[in-house]
Amino acid sequence: MWDAPATLGTMSEATPMTAGEPTPVHADSAKKRTVFAWSLWDWGSASFNAVVTTFVFSVYLTSASFGEEHVVSAKLGTALLVAGVVVALFAPVIGRLTDAAGRRKTWLGINTAIVVACTALMVLVAPAEQYLMLGLVLLAIGNVAFEFASVSYNAMLGQIANDRNVGKISGFGWGMGYLGGIVLLALLLVGFIFPDVGWFGVTGDDGWNIRVAMVISALWFAVFAIPVFFAVPEIDVASDFRGTGRGVLTAYRDLFRSVLDLWRTARTTLTFLVASAVFRDGLAGVFTFGGVIAALSFGFDSTTVIVFAIAANIVAGLATILVGFFEDRVGAKTVMVWSILLMVVCGLLVFILNPLGGWVFWVFGLLLCIFVGPVQSASRSFLARLIPPGREGEIFGLYATTGRAVSFLAPAGFTLAVALGGSTIYGILGIVLVLLVGLLLLLPVRSEASRPRSGVGA
Q1: Distances (CA, A) of 415 to 34, 309, 418, 429, 430
Q2: Per-domain boundaries in the chain
Q3: Cα distance between residue 210 and residue 205, in whole Å
Q4: Mean pLDDT over residues 106-127, rounded?
Q5: Which residues make beta-bridge pairs with 203?
Q6: What is the SS3 assignment for 349?
Q7: Hey, do 25-247 and 266-389+408-447 end up sharing a CATH topology, with the first three levels equal?
Q8: Is 110 helix (H, G, I), strand (E, B) or coil?
C-alpha cells in the first residue's frame, strides 16, 4: 500500500473511487478468456519490439546502403533520443488524461493503430540514403506511440487482476510477448530474410525481404491486438473531468503535485519508480549489448548470434510465465531481488570465464536471460499493487517517464567499461554495475499487502 493513509493527493484507501475507477470485469464472463485476450496484445506488440527495434529494421537502417556507419548510427541515436524525450515529457500526462476521460481503451486503440501504420509504411524505405530520414521518422513515431500504448495497456492490469493473481497474470502477458516476438521472428527469418528466394518469390533485391517483413509484422500486431478491445471494458469517466482542453492545461500542474505527494506520503513508492528505472535500463542493456559481446568477445558469427537471440527470448518467455505462478506466493519484490542478484552473478561469471570459450556465453548468458523477463513482469505487478484504482494510467505514465529519464545508464556503463578495460568483454561489467545499483535502490522499498482489487483474472 502507500506509505501513509493519504495516497496521491487527498485520496485515501477508504475514499470512494469515482474518478476514472476501473469498471469491474464480471467473473462469469471474464476470467481466463479476458486474461488471454489481454495477453494477446503483448504477443502481437512484440513484433515491434523484436522485429522493428531490435533484430531487423533498426539493423537494416544501419547498413551501408544508407550511408557511412558512424553517420547513420549517430542519426539513429538522435531519432531515438528525440522519441525518448517526447515519451518522458508526455507519458504521465497522457496517462492521467485517459484515466480522467474514461478513454483508456480508446487511446490504446489509437496508439496501436499508429504503431501498425508506421510499421506498414516501412515497406517504402528502400536501401538508399534518401530514404534514411523516412525510416528514422517512422521508427521514432512508432516508438513514441508504442510507449504511449504501453501506458494504457499496463494500466489495464488493475482491471483484470486482483491481489491474488496479479503476478501470475502479469507474468503470463510478459511471457506471451517474448514468445510471440520469437515466433514471428522465426517465421520471417525462415520465410524471407535467410533464403535467397523466400516465400512468394521475395528476394533481397532492393531490400524487399526486409520491407515485406515489415508489412507482415504490421499485420501480425493488428490481428492480435483486436481481442483486448472486446474483452476488457472501458473505464468510467471521472466525475470532475472538465474536458481535454482544460485537462491539458492543468495536467502538468497536477502531475507535479502528484510527484510532491509521492515524496511526502509515499516515498518508498517514489523510490521504487527510481529503482525500477535503473534496473530496467540494465535489463535493456542485456539484450542491447548481448549480441555485441557474443560476436566480439566470444567469436559468434551473425547466424549464431540470431540463434542465441531466439534461444534467449524463448527461455526468458517461458521463465516469465513459470515464475509468475509463484510470484503471488513469494512476493514480487522477492522475485526481483533474487533475479537481479542472480543476473549479477551470471554476468560476472561471463566476464571471469571468458577465456574458456563460447560455451561460457551459451551457458551463463542464457542463465542470465532467464531472469530478465521475471524482473520486468514482477516490476509491473509490484507497481500495479501500489496504485489506487483510477490512477493506473498516471502512475504507469510516471513509470515510463522515469525509465526514459535514465535510459543512458546502460549505454554509458557499457561504453565506459570498454574504454577503461580496453576490450568489449569489460562492457558486461558496466551492465552489471547498473543492475547492482538498481538492486541497492530496490532493497529499502517495503513489500506490503496492497488494497483489494475487483478484477477477477484467471
Answers
A1: 44, 22, 5, 10, 8
A2: 25-247, 266-389+408-447
A3: 10
A4: 95
A5: 197
A6: helix
A7: yes
A8: helix
In the chain, pLDDT over 90 holds for what percent of residues? 21
Pairs from 121-125 (Cβ < 8 Å, separation ≥ 24): 122/52, 122/57, 122/211, 122/214, 123/211, 123/212, 123/214, 123/215, 124/211, 125/60, 125/61, 125/207, 125/211
Buried (b) or exposed (e) across 318-357, using 16+ Cβ within 10 A? ebbbbbbeebbeebbbebbbbbbeebbebbebbbeebeee
Q: What is the pTM of this model?
A: 0.75
* CB contact set of 449 (below 8 Å; sequence gap of 6+): 1, 163
Residue 440: the pLDDT is 93
pLDDT at res. 453: 47
| Predicted pLDDT at 337 | 93
Pick 25-247's CATH classification: 3.40.47.10, 2.60.120.260, 3.40.50.970, 1.20.1250.20.
1.20.1250.20
Give pLDDT tens digits for 213-269.
999 999 999 999 999 998 887 766 655 555 544 455 566 666 677 677 767 766 777
Percent of the chain with pLDDT over 70: 79
Confidence at residue 265, expressed as pLDDT on a 0 to 100 scale: 65
**Could you tell me which residue, 38 or 287, shows the higher pLDDT?**
38
Partners of 197 in the β-ladder: 203
Residue 412 one-letter amino acid = A
The CATH code belonging to domain 266-389+408-447 is 1.20.1250.20
For the record, the C-alpha cell of 128 comes out as 538508399
CB atoms within 10 A of CB 18: 12
CA distances from 95 to 113, 202, 398 (A): 18, 42, 9
The pLDDT score that the predictor gives to residue 189 is 85
